[in-house]
Structure formats: structure tokens, C-alpha cells
Amino acid sequence: MLLAQIVDVSDRVRSTRSRSRKIETLAELLRGLSDTDAPIAVSYLSGSPLQDRLGAGYATVYGIEVDAASAAELTLSEVDVTLSLLARTAGPGSKQAKADLLSSLFGRATEAEQEFLRGLILRNLRQGALEGVMADAVAQAAGADADTVRRAAMLSGSLTTVATDALVNGPGALDAYRLAVLTPLQPMLAKTAESPSAAIASLGTAEVEWKLDGLRIQVHRDGDTVRVFTRNLNDITERVPEIVAKARSLALDSVILDGEALIVGGDGSPESFQDSMSRFGTDDGSRELTPFYFDILHLNGTDLIDRSTLERRSALETVVPAGQIVTAIVTADADEAAAFYDEAVAAFQEGVVLKQVDAKYEAGRRGGAWLKVKPAHTLDLVILAAEWGSGRRKGWLSNLHLGARDPEGGYVMLGKTFKGLTDEMLVWQTETFLEIEEHRDGHVVYLEPQIVYEIAFDGVQRSPRYPGGVALRFARVKRYREDKDPDDADTIDTVRAILERRS
Hints:
By secondary structure, the chain is of the alpha+beta class. The protein has helices at about 5-15, 20-30, 35-45, 60, 75-90, 95-105, 110-120, 130-140, 145-155, 160-170, 195-205, 240-250, 275-280, 310-320, 335-345, 425-435, 490-500; strands at about 190, 205-210, 215-220, 225-230, 255-265, 290-300, 300-305, 330, 350-355, 370-375, 375-390, 395-405, 410-415, 435-440, 445, 450-455, 460, 470-475, 475-480.
């Protein structure tokens, strides 16, 4: 199959807001795939290559400047082979070798294919074919039940594997998928609620848990064998011996646990997310990670994912020590939920998660049965620069460079974001920013410091990457502050004070 066929379908999916039309467009292509092309096509149309890590960043990908091919000739298999070579290229001289591989690939691609490949390699396609849409398209193409496809993907941890199996071997192949200890499954996710009271209004009686600011982990044990996986299903067993040891000490034969891992200070309060994450990059055993579990999916040969939230919680409490279980209450009272939320925030937790008491564990889904509530911080920051977008944002200035005011003069960059920008805002800011452009450096347009945006964020962390030594976590745009001048923007001292209060 030609890459051009995938690019065409991707464009058609991106250009429509109709979910049913997206599904029909994808299903039409999926029906005609060969055994070889099926996994490649499904992964590309889901927005990611088959290879986990390609080792090619923005500068490398956008640094490739070659003439586009006049006719479409690249096949999916040829692209996949090149990306596999790219992933395996490492060591001295690898940067140039990767650039050479990409130059050769891009030289055989049309202009539209080049743009698609950039988004694919950087996992930045934003084409609208998310896993939920793709699962429905696979079901339609294979003549399978959509819930069966989603459940098989959940249990296998790979929609690409399930899709290929269903398309090649028929819907009956999906019956073979079972929950398997030592094989990671996609975690259940939570949607955002505005407040604990809003969540209670939606769920009724709910289990309300502290939301910890750590690394999501999934711990599997079968006999003495233990495996620890991240939210992205990466195996980190060798890097967390303390978690492995605690799992082995449990009085049970087999289990799958869902939770968070973080560093806890001497006073029992959590260390910052950044400190917990940095532990994974070192061999320093002096900073021990502590697991805190909030769910159990399998116990001693029995799968629990179809049991209710309260049944799973009860099972969890029978086998895991109380000190390794996330704090929780069960309530239908909005005031009690709000007070519990306040306690969580006061204890430096990230917020709370409210769970429907009779909900099953729907792995891989962000349904309405779990609702998270987190405090939203905001700052008024100056926009220092913006980057030209790609994919559906091509032609618009998108990624924003955020700056806090330095009381001694100038501005200090705190990071970048394109989150929260509507199409209308993209159009407005592109026109406005070009009128106050100071200079350009590649794809970055630097601006006169005139525009102030209100930016929401989840926290502040130390960062050697930026001159102020701090950066915002999960920054997103709330609005343009036309009522404020740059002199009214928040200062770098304010930002550092937020970090100090957290520390």
C-alpha cells in the first residue's frame, strides 16, 4: 500500500467533525489491508509509528530540507523499514546518520507526505483518529462488536495488535484475549470535573480518593516473578527494586495492582513530582520510591476488572498493607467530599478522584465513572515568541513561549504551550503576533513583549532548561488579558514562591 493512501485518509478524517464519518472513512481503508500493511496502517492512523523510540526530535525533523517528490511512490513497508533503522541508530555519529536516513526518506515523499511524516515521527499528527475512533473503525471493518474490540485492546495493551488480528483472522480471534498476569493492560483514566460537588452531582455516592502526584504504576506478580509497568506500559522493573521487594512480600500467589509511586519525605508528605521522576534516572537507592495502590485487577487466579469499585477496594484492603493504600472515603455528601478535597490539597496531594461505587474497571478508557478534581493555578504571563504549527495547525502561530516579568528588567521564560487554543484564537494571534514580530529564528517568531495571556497550570518545578531555573507543569491558555499590560504580568519571584511553598 502507498503511504499516499494513508495521508489521504488522514486528511479526510481531520477535515470532518463527524465521528461517524471518521469511522466510515477509516473502516473503508482498513477493509482492504494486507497482513503486512495492517499493523503499520493502524498505528499510523492512530498517530504513532510502530517503533517506541525513534530518537529524532523537532530540530532534526524540521532541519531536513529536501525537494519533495513530484509523484507518490513510497510504500508503507518502505517507511516502516526506514523508521526501524532510525530507531536502531545510536552512538557516535548517530545524529548525522539519522538526518541522512530522514533526508533520503523525505526526498522520496511528496509535499503532503513530508508533512504527514513530520507529524508521525514527532507523534504530533492531531488528525482526529484517536484510539476510541479507531477501535470503532476496526469493529466496523472486521464485522466485530465495538466493545469486544475495546476490551481486547485493553487486555492486550495494544490496539494495533488487536486490530491486525481482527482484520486478518476475523472477529472470532478476539475471543482469545484474556487478562494475563505479567502482561500490562491499559489503565483506566479519569475525566476532569470542576469541583467535588459537581462530581458528586454526576456520580451520586462515590469513593473519593486522594490523587497522588507520582508516577502511575501497574504491578504484576505471578509467584516470585514481579513486573512493574508505567502508564504507557513500559517495563521499569529493573529500575524500581524497592517496589518489587514490597510486592514480593505480600501474602498472595498472583496479583495485578494499580497505583502511584512517589518519594515520601520524613514528615510523611510527598516530595515533588520532579523529585520522584528524577529517581528513575539514577541508581541512587537512598531516595526510595513508595507504592500507593488504589485498585486491584486480579487476585490469586481471579480477574476482578468486572467487579464494582467497592468490591475491588475491599479485595485490595485484604492483601495490601494500609500504609500502601491511597486514602479514601465513601460519601454522597457534597460538603464532605469538598472537605476531603481540602484535606488532600493541604497535605500537598494533587487533588482527588471520585469513582462511581458500582463501576467496573474499564481499562484504556476515560469514561465518566472516574472524575478528577485538581486545584487550578493561574498566572498572567507575557508571550515572548510563538512557533509555526504543524498538522491541522499548519499556517498558524501556535506553540507559545511564556514569560514572567523580571523585577530587574526583561522577562524570564517558563516554558511553552499550545494547549487551550481555539481555532478562533489561533487565527487572531497569528494576525496579531505578526504585527509585533521582532525577528525570526527558523520556525520561531519572536515578539515585542506586548501581549499578556492568563495561563492555567498544575504546578511549578525546578528546570535547568530555562534561565529562571523553574518551569510550569501542564500549562494551558485560559484567555487573552486585553485589560493588562506587560507591566501587570506576574513576576518570576511569584513563580519561585509557588515552588518554595510546595517544597
